[in-house]
User: What shape does this take?
Amino acid sequence: MSRWRVNCFASALRESSTTLKSRPHVRRKRTGRTILARDMRHARLPNASVIYNMHPNLINSTRTDGGDIARHDTCLWNPLSVDPAARQFSSYAAFKDTAVVRPLVPDVPVDAELIDAHDQLCQQIAGDYYPCTGAISVFAQKGYRFGLFPELACDNAVRAVCHDLYEFCHEFPIIDDQLITFIAMFRGPAIESEQHFEHMLWSQLQAMHAIDSDFFAWDKSVDSDPMNNNFSFSIGGRAMFVIGMHPKASRLARTFRYPTMVFNLHEQFECLRARGKFETMKQIIRAREMKFQGSINPMLKNFGESSEASQYSGRAVSGNWPCPFHAHKKDET
Assistant: This one.
């Protein structure tokens, strides 16, 4: 990658920051919300085409202008790497050997509540007859990343989860035989009902999409219309099947102390189908669910039979349930 392109990228970031600082009270409309542009948190970075045309590594660029040196450390695979709120509330964690670690900030002490939340999740997955053999396999192989974020659907949580999912997609660019997943747990709010959680989950996904669509196109292997049978949520250009968990869930396998969203890369299910393993796993899960709760989740469907959007929150809904999510029109071209 040429020094000229690096310097152009650094210059664009610096000029965006300078412009916003000189106009601290400029307001602009974005996805139906009024945003107060006070700092780089709301500065638009170079678009995805610029990012993809550059080497996908950390940029350490230096530009001298009038004696001042501007340094910009930007992960090109993660457009929120320069977002102060996303970085502050990032919680990207892994379980290595016998301890919770923070790969992105290894020198920062691990939050005790994050460790406790992880321990509780492990205990639930390891319980007798827990139905999801995929989750059991993921935890046994430590093929998961996780985090504990601010209140579900608040701006800081939205930015931080996007940030960490970009890191997750970068860490796992290719899917092999190992199942992987990203688990986002939230410190609140206190969930009142299944309908309440469903509303919060889709508010989170809608706000994440509002950010993500500035940088990434929808995964072309799936549809962006939640009423389409081929719908799947997309983040960072990759399709994700989302599983919601919370204290008020009627399905025991979906019950958890923290409001939680589990993001599974869609491509791994296609890999299982290609290897002839998906149907076997599905039958095992349903047999275990009968032992675990005495009934099979009525919302479970194979991809393509109906929109998977109705499965995300875990609440049983009718066939004419209106999904509140709307993808941006520019993603449907």
